[in-house]
Amino acid sequence: MRVITALACLITLLAMPCASASEDLFGDMSSAMDGYNEQIDKLPSFLKHIGDERINCEIQLEGGGSMTVGVIIDNLQIDLQKGALDHPSVTVQVDEQTVREIINSGSPLTTIAAALEDGRITYRVHGRWWKKFKYSILERLLIERY
Fold it and tell me: In terms of domain of life, where is this protein from (predicted)?
């Protein structure tokens, strides 16, 4: 019984830094989204055609482990949710360092374009072929212009 209790305590202690790191990252992402939402009118016109989307962003944390953030885009306003969304239109894979680079960048679109181009950001589009086609065009435009 003592071994089980000790293991439970150890697992709890090891999970705490990861939970704290994910809370910090989620808070930083939320603050950044508030700033982006205020400047949505400055988006390039081709990005305004994204439409309403439900995106699961799977983030590999620097200290090990991962977290998923649900990104809901509705009328070009971005809301974040802790945890995965049901029926996402896109699933994005990225690491914490890249997310922080985007948050801290003076030019987030340039940082995103570079990360897409070098593979630090990958994604899977769920749904019909036209949605996959739309995202491949958006990715190419983003990389070419930034």
Answer: Archaea
Q: Using CA atoms, how far apart are residues 50 and 45, in angstroms rounded to an integer? A: 10
Cα distance between residue 83 and residue 16, in whole Å? 17
Q: Is residue 14 part of a domain?
A: no
CA angle 85, 76, 113 (to 5 degrees): 85
Distant-in-sequence, close-in-space partners of 110: CB < 8 Å, separation ≥ 6: 146
Which residues, other chains included, contact 34 with Cβ-Cβ below 8 Å and sequence gap of 6+? none
Pair of tokens at residue 74: 């509705």
> Residue 30: phi, psi to the nearest 5?
-65, -45
Domain limits for position 39: 21-145
31-69 burial: b if 16+ Cβ within 10 Å, else e? ebbeebeeeeeeeeeeeeebeebbbbbbbebeeebebbb
Q: CB 29: neighbour CB atoms within 10 A?
A: 20
Task: Report the CATH number that the domain containing residue 141 is assigned in CATH.
Answer: 3.30.1050.10
pLDDT tens digits, 15-49: 444 445 567 999 999 988 888 888 877 877 777 76
Enumerate the β-bridge partners of residue 95: 60
